Amino acid sequence: xxRKYIGMQHDIIKSIKKxxxxxxxxxxxxxIEGHWDHEKxxxxxxxxxxxxxxxxxxxxxxxxxxxxxxxxxxxxIYYVSEKVIRKLCxxxxxxxxxxxxxxxxxxxxxxxxxxxxxxxxxxxETPGNIGTIFxxxxxxxxxxxxxxxxxxxxxxYKTIKASMGGSFTIPWYFxxxxxxCQEWLVSNGYTLVLADPHSQHSFKRVNYGNKSALVVxxxxxxxxxxxxxxxxxxxxxxMLGKCDSLNVGVAASIILYEMCIKET
Length: 264
Prior knowledge:
Blueprint: H1 11-19, E1 29-33, H2 35-41, E2 47-53, H3 61-73, E3 76-79, H4 82-88, E4 97-102, H5 108-111, E5 117-122, H6 127-140, E6 144-148, H7 157-162, H8 166-169, E7 172-174, H9 178-187, E8 191-195, E9 212-217, E10 232-235, H10 248-263
Parallel strand pairs: 2-3, 5-6, 5-9, 6-7, 8-9, 8-10
Antiparallel strand pairs: 1-4, 2-4
Helix pairs in contact: 6-10
């Protein structure tokens, strides 16, 4: 099969540059780069919409095997020069593979029966923190992520990359507001656990229940004021040193594991 090469002015290349920042209109569409990420999508629900290949940068047997697997799964395939792909990559060592990917549109009401443990991200704005939480959700066995007051795009390249594959396995859902989210959680029998560094209740002394939702807030301002404390528990992680709190990604990870351990 003859390979068709495209250049920087092609529409697909232009769309990659835009999608790296995240597309709010298409929240389940994103970019992946490198053979490791492409290997991770093989066993996930991720669909490779468009595969962009630089043959000159595929040099090892492992890279060639991933490339051939992607060829079988991709809807569309484009070839580019090394010069083009280096302009698309963020790092010095460019990869031979870049893809535009999509996930199914998750509908929480139809998948609710499978969701017992989840986390709500209220206004998080740092891609690294969001990616860390997705990675911890995958590792700890959390079922889903809910996003309210979105500030950092969940489908930006930085967020997807930081998740280390967690974004490929953990479904995410959006609510228009914290109030709407809280109403849905309460009506469906979830115990709401609000992470608050000022709380006097340790995260280890909480009965999380069979269905629980951890809520974490913005890195600077914390949780929005819309959360009703009458329907929730506030917990903190004891700090034994001089710092008054942990990074939100680290704190969320610690509590998520506790939620799952107590369930078992």
